[in-house]
């Protein structure tokens, strides 16, 4: 699944799943633009990736249209083109439905859904112009979640935002199909990242997660990166409008994978 000389923008790329995707893409020959708001981690990620290939870090709040425009401009300045977008940036705000603050709801939707739209639109405009000029179409990958289909009662805006990401994926795939531009999504299950760290450190909470996971383990960021590498490659040339769930078998499960303690 070579991505040789492809240019990829990865939002939320300084850590977790985003960084794993960035590392995989660079290893597969791509030139990567890491976008994040954590400058410390972003600069560390750039330094680490430069040991194996080409990468730059750009500060970007995906909820801000001007930041997104500057991100695409920075990618073009650095590498001359953009072929791939991975919309990975995401946040959570846990609260009971009746107590959820409006500002927290707005903040999560702004990053997870509006941010994905702004980045997708900006990169799609570039790709459409390139196709019209006789160039090759690119591809867009949105990072969704199993919680786009399932739900967690105290993660209201997160679940809603990821449901929106799935529909953004379908709508965009249809709109961009005439140009040959593919849009897909990945829906991770429980993955070993900072976002899940508190759950994994609690034995009872971890057991609860594993009781709903037929493969009996938590996933690794590199496993999501492998799916992203496939979707970005020519091997997925006839795949668009799809969400691929890498969840250890959770979505098909009706009861429990094992007895809960």
Automatic annotation (TrEMBL):
Q: Which keywords describe this protein according to UniProt?
A: Oxidoreductase
InterPro entries for the chain: KR_dom, NAD(P)-bd_dom_sf, SDR_fam
Which parts of the sequence belong to the Ketoreductase domain? 6-189
Q: Biological process (GO) annotations?
A: fatty acid biosynthetic process
One GO MF term on file is: quinone binding
SUPFAM superfamilies from the entry?
NAD(P)-binding Rossmann-fold domains (SSF51735)
Task: Give the superkingdom in one word.
Answer: Bacteria
* Any Pfam family the entry gives: adh_short_C2
The similarity annotation says:
Belongs to the short-chain dehydrogenases/reductases (SDR) family.
Protein name listed in UniProt:
SDR family oxidoreductase
Organism expressing this protein natively = Stappia albiluteola
